[in-house]
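Progress report, Aim 2. The chain analyzed during this reporting quarter is listed below.
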Amino acid sequence: MKIDDIQTILRGSFTINYWVRLDDSTPTWTTNGIYNDSDNSMQFGLATSGNFQFSFDGDGTAIAFTGAGDLDGSGTGLSGNSQSDWIMITLTATLDSGSSDSTFAFYTNANAISTDKTLAKAKHTAFATGGFVFSFGGRNNRGTVNNNLDGNITECAIWNTALDADAVTALYNAGSPISALSDHGNYDNSTALVRYYNFDQGSGTTITDKTGNANGTLVGNPTYSEDYPG
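Predicted structure tokens for the chain:
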């Protein structure tokens, strides 16, 4: 699914969150995000090892993370748990109010698997999309979506703030997603929600953004499914 150009959001504090269920116990390489050029890209997703991976390249300076555990954060490896389960993936970026570096954090389900990756603030705020739009379930590579997901995806959300660990845990809700549109327990960030797609329309190629900001567009002929986490 392609959404709009979110350059302004990605230059500040943000959170991107979605749920995924794989069709294959050994996932193919799949990424979400955008590749503008060798100096500017933001992409994250799953490697063939089942590890969560992320990279953010702003104005020629990059940070990258490859998870040491498997998708659900249990550390048991792909053969030790059911990869047919729904998994929630979250990444956050915190833009410092002063001159300090931006900090990125990564979660699978409610597990923080990295919280210490940093990028110079000047590089973070210089990130350039080149006008190319962001993509969920695949990477927008200068106008062509590739590295597509083999599986299901839902509850795609973006906030213009960095959610804390308690909010991520509340969203996970022991494996039964809550609506990001309303505060719930330790999730008190609904007013910072700027994109939200839950695919509940069931047909068509236009995906309604429940925040009313920017509808998405399905590409690559995916099909709707009634399969849902929880």
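Confidence is low (pLDDT under 50) at residues 75-82. The chain is about 5% helix and 35% strand. These observations will guide the mutagenesis work planned for the next reporting period.
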